[in-house]
Specification:
By secondary structure, the protein is an alpha/beta fold. The chain has a single domain (about 30-300), classed as 2-enoyl-CoA Hydratase, Chain A, domain 1 (Alpha-Beta Complex), CATH 3.90.226. Helices cover about 45% and strands about 20% of the residues. Strands 1, 2, 3, 5, 6, 7, 8, 9 and 10 form a 9-stranded mixed beta sheet that branches. Strands 4-11 form a two-stranded antiparallel sheet. β5, α4 (about 120-125) and β6 (about 130-135) form a beta-alpha-beta unit. α2 packs parallel to α3 (about 90-105).
Length: about 300
């Protein structure tokens, strides 16, 4: 009897440990993306320049804002380089990162470094930095706002689908894809675009210390190379990312070649990714930024 009881207890303990192990594996594979901090040396202690990446279509501000705040409060970080490789994106997300850069500037020097493209919302963010540096061939500018609303009402009619809308006000379903926009709706959307456009222009005027009329002459959506942007007063200097790091180090009082620190994004495949591949095959999932891009809304976005 005692042997049977011991066997049962042993099996219970075994299954308990197996269950804990399976939960640990599940937690690991469902944890998805994260950030790990990396430095340019194993013993990279002391004064450093932090690098914060703004990459791709700007659909969210939370991670960039978090990093800017962290490095602004880190005593070992003497300056920050905001590396921008982005055509812009959502208006609000761009503005939130812009505000975070301004707040970081209150604590330490901030240099914006432009990659291949730092346009529209990407340029909006750069305006908040103490200094903007771009490669001669970087594409920047594209000061303006865009909103797009797909219309496929005629297609729905052809396949026998119609929609009925019950709304609280005349403009409640503005931008509906099932019908053309009315003149009143178009005027309302245009007024919103005009206001957010003015906010963009004001940010450039304030931070670049330029006359409003000069900014307006450049703010028709035009893109500029880095060299053209410098000639127009939109950026301060030409140089690559290493040049920006050295400049930031100098502005932060670091002598010699500055050490750097940055967070590197990693992406573990989740258990849900494996399941989706089994059901739908590989490559079926849209990136989050593209999901945001395809949704209606105002955007500081450069489009070729």
């Amino acid at each position: 009897m005692a042997e049977k009881r011991n066997l049962i207890v042993g099996l219970v303990i075994l299954f308990l440990f197996l269950g804990i192990g399976l939960l640990a594996v599940f937690a690991y594979f469902s944890s998805g993306a994260g950030y790990a901090e990396t430095e340019d040396g194993v013993f990279a202690i002391g004064a450093k320049v932090a690098i914060v990446d703004v990459t791709g279509i700007i659909s969210s501000s939370s991670e960039v804002v978090r990093q800017l705040k962290k490095y602004a409060e880190d005593g070992s970080v003497k300056a920050i380089v905001v590396r921008i490789e982005s055509p812009g994106g959502g208006v609000s997300a761009s503005q939130e990162i812009y505000d975070a850069v301004l707040e970081a500037r209150e604590e330490k020097a901030v240099v914006a470094s432009m990659g291949s493209v730092a346009a529209s919302g990407g340029y909006y963010i750069a305006c908040a930095a103490d200094t903007i540096m771009a490669n001669p061939g970087s594409l920047t500018g594209s000061i303006g706002v865009i909103a797009e609303f797909p219309v496929f009402g005629e297609l729905l009619k052809k396949i026998g689908i119609k929609t009925e809308v019950i709304k609280s006000g005349e403009l409640k379903d503005v931008g509906s894809p099932t019908r053309p926009m009315t003149e009143k709706e178009r005027a309302m959307i245009q007024s919103v675009i005009n206001d957010t456009y003015d906010q963009f222009v004001e940010a450039v005027v304030k931070n670049r210390k330029m006359e409003r009329q000069k900014v307006l002459a450049l703010a028709d959506g035009s893109v500029f190379t880095g060299r053209q942007a410098q000639a127009n007063g939109l950026i301060d200097a030409l140089g690559n990312q290493e040049d920006a790091i050295r400049l930031a180090g100098k502005m932060g009082g670091i002598s010699g070649e500055p050490r750097t620190v940055k967070e590197k994004k990693y992406r573990r495949r989740t258990i849900f990714d494996f399941a989706a591949e089994e059901i739908f095959g590989k490559g079926m999932e849209l990136p989050e930024e593209w999901k945001d891009l395809l949704s209606p809304g105002l955007k500081y976005l450069y489009k070729m």
